[in-house]
Amino acid sequence: MSSLLVVKIGGNVIDNPHALSQFLQRFASLPQQKILIHGGGKIATQVAAKLGVETQMVEGRRITDQAMLDVVTMVYGGLVNKNIVAQLQSIGANALGLTGADAGVIRARKRAVKEIDYGFVGDVEQVNAEVLAGFVQSDLLPVIAPLTFDASLASMLNTNADTMASAVAAALASRFEVNLVYCFEKKGVLSNPDDDDAVIPTLTPTSYANYKATGVINKGMIPKLDNAFAALQNGVSQVTICHADELTTALQTGNTGTKLTLV
Amino acid sequence: MSSLLVVKIGGNVIDNPHALSQFLQRFASLPQQKILIHGGGKIATQVAAKLGVETQMVEGRRITDQAMLDVVTMVYGGLVNKNIVAQLQSIGANALGLTGADAGVIRARKRAVKEIDYGFVGDVEQVNAEVLAGFVQSDLLPVIAPLTFDASLASMLNTNADTMASAVAAALASRFEVNLVYCFEKKGVLSNPDDDDAVIPTLTPTSYANYKATGVINKGMIPKLDNAFAALQNGVSQVTICHADELTTALQTGNTGTKLTLV
């Protein structure tokens, strides 16, 4: 089986043009077949504010009404995605920008309303691994925006990029030896939030449960790690969480970031 | 040689959600292999105004500074393109949204500054027919936004959709028998601008020159027809200009719209 690198790049790098450009240079120079999944960044909030669309957040998650869906479709699917595609193309990487709707690659279902109505937010239902594998095998580099699609509504849906990365990696695990890397603004999962160097080198489901029980791992890291472990449980060979600046080192030496293992 | 239908849909249909939905239904139900190229519509001007970006027009053409380039990248490449892709996917057409940057399908060069500096506006240099043909042959339906790409600038470029349709049709003419249709808000090229039924049924380069000399054909129709004749001269089998509502009739009976022929 040939290998495939699936990288998720967080919104904070998207918000910093210099950091993004540096990251894309490093990413493009990696020899592997690759897929990039990007977060949204703060641009959508800024554009929404200028357009008079109010941003409502509940427990760190954006509520997506129709006006906000239009904004994230513009910003994530248009501005951010095409900016990344143009930069990659200019350095010789044959990037193809996608949302979940394009070629039907990621179908989702609008999240059911329980205590909170998240609006036009999608939970991933199905990744079309055949189409994505076809693009990769045609030497294209899929660049996926955090938007999916519900055919029954004929609507785009705002979707968490961490979840999309996990679902894409898992769907391709029967065709490739998949290496999933979450790149963000920290050096890895930290055992002390005030010490950026206190990286936990490896996590197993057991140690993860202990860190959660003691509150060392909390808040936004929990859904990220749940997604990351789900990928491993669904056949992904390797999952790493590291700083965007250390992607190359993490892949070449393994001596940075947090590695997740099942045992 | 198998046949390929290349359809350009104008901005005025994009601005009318009902008309767009009707058009996409008709378009999707056509049995041929297809490519759709869409215009921009007025949404970009509205979004630009709300964002405080001033729209400057010179001789009917938008001047595209960096702020306006960001707006058209958002609106054409994001909102409009993904709205069309989502609608087509929901009715079973396997749409793939593209800008010129995606998979490097349409490279352009930033227009040189002469009397007017159009800013980030691209003149098409090269269409990657192999990649587009590959998508079509994989039963994908490319939906192309009016944006191209200059690798030397790592920048998206705002580009006229009529020109893109002509260039795409011509580039594919050695691989397919290409039928190019420009759909817009009139029944065809008119011999009297005040009579919407005064459709000129056929135009040759000679009759076109006569209509131009007498001023019957003028203004915005001239670049559209220049693009349309260029496609014929570059091997496209058939070029029709018709109302968006009459696409099916134009293709099935040929008894509507204006047909262009070389002799």
Keywords, separated by commas or semicolons:
alpha/beta, homodimer, 9 helices, eight-stranded mixed β-sheet, 263 residues, globular, Carbamate kinase, two-stranded antiparallel sheet
Task: Explain what this protein looks like in three dimensions.
Two copies of one chain form a homodimer. With 263 residues, chain A is an alpha/beta fold. The first copy, chain A, has a single domain, classed as 3-Layer(aba) Sandwich (Carbamate kinase), CATH 3.40.1160. Chain A contains nine helices and 14 strands. The first copy, chain A, has helices spanning 11-14, 17-29, 43-50, 66-90, 129-137, 161-171, 205-213, 221-233, 247-252, and strands at residues 3-9, 33-38, 56-58, 61-63, 95-98, 106-110, 122-127, 141-144, 147-150, 155-158, 177-184, 202-203, 238-243, 258-260. Chain A has an eight-stranded mixed sheet. In chain A, α3 crosses α4 and α6 (161-171) runs parallel beside α8 (221-233). At the A-B interface, α4 and β5 of A face α4 and β5 of B.
Quaternary structure state of the chains depicted:
homodimer
> How many structural domains can be distinguished in the coordinates of chain A?
1
Shape of chain A: globular
Order of helices and strands of chain A: EHHEHEEHEEEHEEEHEEHHEHE
Based on the coordinates given, report the CATH architecture of chain A: 3-Layer(aba) Sandwich
The spatial strand order of the largest sheet of chain A comes to: 5-8-2-1-11-13-14-12
Q: What is the level 1 CATH name of chain A?
A: Alpha Beta
How is the biggest beta sheet of chain A arranged? 8 strands, mixed
Tell me the number of strands of chain A. 14
Remind me, CATH topology of chain A?
Answer: Carbamate kinase
Most residues in contact, chain pair and counts: A-B, 41 and 41 residues
Unreliable runs of chain A? none
Q: Measured on Cα atoms, how large is the radius of gyration of chain A? A: 18 Å
